[in-house]
Amino acid sequence: MFDNTNTDWTDVYLYSWGMGYFGDFVKMDAAGNDLYTAVAPVDVEAGTECFLFTNTTDWSGKQTPNIVTEADKNTYKPIVNAAGNVTSVEQSLTASSTAPKVVATPNSKSFSGSLDVNLYAFNTNDATYTVNGEEDFLSGDVTLNLTETTTIEIFVNDVKVKTYVYTRTDVADAVVNVTAPEGYTGDIYVYTFGGDRVGVGFNLMTANGDGTYTYIINGSAHVIFTTTNDWATAVKFIISDASGVLPNQEPLV
Asked: What is the pTM of this model?
């Protein structure tokens, strides 16, 4: 739950790379009293860093810092400075609603090849869903493997509450090449996020034996190059060329 009292954003989005999401911008629903809600279908342990809030879906607007979850907290209220920027986020507990909740992850998106979509229903035994018009019962969670452009609609008590569109758009591969710092012979991982048709996570690059490393992306994503596949130990590589350190250290490829 997001408390919009201090921010007064017109729209509020949850951006998450955890809790069942995969680098998705999820528009939150207004719940009254400046509160906005979204369904987090998968529980995470306290101390997990896997989401933030923003008022846009393209990183051009305002956003909170990454949120580190605290035990028994589910409401997040940004603290804003005189310039209107979020400096920190207060966490508190709000009693959870017993109203029916349904959600699909990932959120509507384009994909290539195939895509697994997870459907969830909570607090209801009367949820159904349609896949391109074909209806089925939704109990607990369901995983669908999509191989074509698909519209999924979710209903509660015969009322449509959610619509998702997944568009298959096969694209050419993007080949990412990097040259390691002089003397470095270890692994290089590329961390992908915030793109299209590409999931969030660490990917081991192929060492070519000459100090260069390669990874192929089918789609687009922002990339960060690291030494390991765990943020607890990973060291970021600084991206530079002959002119010096490049300003964009998380480029979209």
From this structure: 0.71
With vertex at residue 219, the alpha carbon angle to CA 213 and CA 223, rounded to the nearest 5 degrees, is: 45
- Name which of 155, 161, 170, 45 is nearest 114 in CA terms: 170
Q: In this predicted model, what pLDDT tens digit does every residue of 52-96 receive, in sequence order?
A: 999 999 888 999 999 999 999 999 999 999 988 999 999 999 998
Nearest Cα residue to 51 out of 79, 18, 27, 74: 18
Number of structural domains, the chain? 3
pLDDT for res 136:
95
Q: Evaluate whether residue 101 is within a structural domain.
A: no
β-bridge partners, 39: none
Rounded Cα distance between 193 and 203, Å, is 11
pLDDT tens for 173-216 read 889 999 999 999 999 999 988 776 667 789 999 999 999 999 99
Residue 97 lies in a domain: no
From the list 47, 51, 57, the residue with the least C-alpha distance to 21 is: 51
The CA distance from 3 to 250, in Å, is: 29
**Residue 190 is part of which domain span?**
174-245
Contact 21, 107 (CB under 8 A): yes
Q: Is residue 100 part of a domain?
A: no
- Among 127, 124, 100, 113, which residue's Cα sits nearest to residue 39? 100
Residue written as token pair 């195939």: 114
Distance CA 110, CA 173 (A): 15
